[in-house]
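Lay summary. Proteins are chains of building blocks that fold into shapes, and those shapes determine what they do. In this project we predict the shape from the chain. Here is one chain we studied, written as its sequence of building blocks.
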Amino acid sequence: MYKKRLLILVISVLLMCLIIGSKGLKAKVPPSSPVSGDIYIHTMAPSFSLKSLSGKTYNLEMTKGKPTVINFWASWCGPCNMEAPELSQLYDQYKGAFNLYAVNLTDTEWSIKAVKAFKARYQFAFPVLLDTDGNVSELYHIRPVPTTVFLNSKGEIVDQVLGYGGEGVLEAKLQKLLKGETDPN
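And here is the predicted shape, written in a compact code that computers can read:
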């Protein structure tokens, strides 16, 4: 009887994980449809202003005229650790061609020390912004972490990656962004 209950419990937990995890799977997104929550492809990105680790304030208005990538991450997130080296490499490789904001979900972190250690470990040369109250991640309806949002030079959302897309996915989407291609599929 105990084994039967344990088996039912294990299957229930696995089903819940599958259901919750499937929300991070990438689906084809037709133009003008929700990206994540209420965020829509080909609409203006919600404006925000955040302080960086260095204390400087950054906002979306500063990015106008240049494609921008916003990456939402946390130091405790395994997939974020997998994705971080590629972000650093892409920033160095395409330096000056686009803006990159790494928005840390600071309200979920153990300490600011963990954020600084992550930045140092992966040699982030781009701004690390601190979402200390979770308002920006809520504004963008961030569910899976990491989530990466791609904005064209006008500030419109043109693509996204929910979760870690795998090696090369960010670069392929960045290349499309830099070429001005806006089809998210």
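What the prediction tells us: The first strand starts at residue 49 and ends at 51.
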